[in-house]
Amino acid sequence: MRRQKPTIVYQDEDILVMDKPAGMLSVPDRYDTSLTNVAELATRVVATARPLHRLDRGTSGLMAFGLHLDAFRNMSLQFEERTIDKEYLALCHGCPTKSEGEIDKPLMLLRAKNQVVVHPKGKSSLSQYSVVQKWQNHVLLSITPQTGRTHQIRVHLQSIGCPLIVDSLYGGLEAFYLSQIKSRYRSGSQKEERPLLSRTPLHAHRLQFDHPSTKKRIDLTAPLPKDMKAVRYQLDKIQAPTLRR
């Protein structure tokens, strides 16, 4: 199977924005620098490209780069001051009790376990969500993090009983199979069933920021990737949506 490459969503003299495929590192690995990463590929487009933020390896979607020092500083300040809006799409088990709301729970990193937990002594963390599509036992959510804590979205969703459908660390499964939602599923020619999804289904769908030179508001989106589309398609067929935005 051919590995996907990041695609350019936006480029000018100041900013480069790429759509990162799931499974690819955002920046070079600390121990194995030979692994392909988006930051390295961005420098092949513009040699001076510097990443402004990171996405987890399993997360797909929009990743921004500053192309010179002034643009990098301007955009970094926007990230720091939380004037950049980031919207993620997430496929989850269960469904929140309300169609939209906030998750305001402090998060703490347990370094020994490399895991994040809700804890009263943790750092304040806020996520806003809304239901995009709802099925019988699953939901597609839009998530806008107002803070940038490690694994924030994954832990916040777990904390309200809606973990990502694939996330062994925070209440999901190792992989998502058609047989899990199709009661009369039969594997063709007795072959081992292949998963519809084998990564955390989190996609950085939308990015809004003030352009460092023109000051105009830039609004970019990246379409849902094939694996998340495949799950959505099968859920539509098997569990007719009860809500669709």
Order of helices and strands: EEHEEHEEEEEEHEEHE
Structural class of the helix and strand makeup? alpha+beta
Main sheet makeup? 11 strands, mixed
Regarding CATH, which class? Alpha Beta
**Helix percent band:** 10-25%
The tally of beta strands, per DSSP, is 13
Number of helices: 4
Give the oligomer, counting copies of the same chain as homo and different chains as hetero: single chain
User: Uncertain regions: pLDDT < 50 for 5+ in a row?
Assistant: none
Number of domains: 1
The best one-word shape is globular
Average pLDDT taken over every residue: 93
What's the alpha carbon Rg, rounded to whole Å? 19 Å
What would the keywords be for this entry?
245 residues; alpha+beta; Pseudouridine synthase; 11-stranded mixed sheet; two-stranded antiparallel ribbon; 17% helix
How does this structure look, described?
The chain has 245 residues and is α+β, with helices and mostly antiparallel strands. The chain has 4 helices and 13 strands. The protein has helices at residues 38-45, 69-80, 152-159, 226-238; strands at residues 7-11, 15-20, 50-51, 60-66, 85-93, 100-104, 107-110, 115-118, 126-134, 138-145, 202-210, 217-221, 243-244. A hairpin with a 6-residue loop joins β11 (202-210) and β12 (217-221). It is globular. The model has no long low-confidence stretch (mean pLDDT 93).
